[in-house]
Amino acid sequence: MYFGGINGLNIFNPKRIKELDIEGQLKFTNLKIKDYYVSPTLLNSVINTSIVNAKSVFLNYDDFPVNLSFSALDFRPNSNINYVYKLLPDDKEWNSLDTKNSIQLLNLSSKSYTLQIQGKSRNNLWQKPPLELKISVSPPWYKSNLAYLAYLLLFLSVVFAFYRISLQRQIAGQESKRLKDLDDLKTRFITNITHEFRTPLTVILGYLSNLKERFSEKDQVNTALNTIEQNSNNLLHLVNQMLDLAKLEQGKITLNTTQSDIIPYVKHLVNSFSSIAQEQSVTLKFESEIDTLKMDFDAEKIRQILTNLISNALKFSFENSQVTIAIETFSQF
């Protein structure tokens, strides 16, 4: 087609319009993290070569925002090029950038992406492969694989610790139950055996009482019977102590208190050991600051306590030593 004009003849050939649709060569030109341009020469750079030739970028989770600039390397005036992009695997369709030749990435999750950029001429996508850049975003330390492994180990340690504690408590409970069963068995045995001892001793003492009444005028027989009675009573007291011990372990011990003067009672108990003290060449004395002291006490329990104390004192005393049982009063402030 030929047209005349003020400057001469104008020629227009419609077949040459396709030259306006020449596909350019897309290249990345700049990479900016936050407000700083990135270069492979910088320390700890996210790229190891120029962004123009880079195939991948390694970002930290806190490197955002990230700005990528690119160019079609088309220097023709009035070139009609628009741009679109995809961020795989998140995007399924192309996103339009219009004529803007940069893209901003904000707060990407910690994983791997592929950024694809493609050009469009007169609303038609270019046929050549798109410009690609692989982007890897590393997670924060508390979301890293090593951290998750540490969490797993910590969780397993806690579970194992709870299991050990539970197992130890179970074993301790079983052991405690076993010891309690053994203790109950021992207590029942002591109770039964003491009752078995107590019954014949009571019978023996009953017959001794009858014999003493019958032979009270015969001194030798009476002395022998007194000795038998005394030793039988001692044995009965021992049996009663065993029975009291069983009751004490079961928490069933009770006090049978009566109000009386404890001074003559203690003096009588001390004097009952005089013969034993003489045989061991030990001086046994009783002293009291007061003549009378009326109080509530269990005579049998006092007898057991003093009997054991005096017996042990005489047993472990040297010859010609002295054992003194004293009752003293103390002022209360």
Spell out the blueprint of helices and strands.
Elements: E1 2-5, E2 8-11, E3 27-33, E4 36-37, E5 56-60, E6 66-71, E7 81-88, E8 95-98, E9 102-105, E10 112-121, E11 124-125, E12 131-138, H1 145-214, H2 219-249, E13 258-261, H3 262-271, H4 274-279, E14 283-288, E15 294-297, H5 299-315, E16 322-327
Parallel strand pairs: 5-12, 14-16
Antiparallel strand pairs: 1-2, 3-4, 3-6, 6-9, 7-8, 7-10, 10-11, 10-12, 13-15
Helix pairs in contact: 1-2, 3-5
Structure notes:
This protein has 333 residues and is of the alpha+beta class. It folds into 3 domains: 2-140, Immunoglobulin-like; 174-250, Signal transduction histidine kinase, dimerisation/phosphotransfer (DHp) domain (Helix Hairpins, Orthogonal Bundle); 258-327, Histidine kinase-like ATPase, C-terminal domain (Heat Shock Protein 90). Helix content is 40%, strand content 25%. Strands 5, 7, 8, 10, 11 and 12 form a 6-stranded mixed β-sheet that branches. The chain has a 4-stranded antiparallel β-sheet with strand order 4-3-6-9, with no helix packed on it. The protein has a two-stranded antiparallel sheet with strand order 1-2. Helix 1 (145-214) packs antiparallel against helix 2 (219-249) and helix 3 runs parallel beside helix 5. The mean pLDDT is 82. The chain crosses the membrane at residues 146-167.
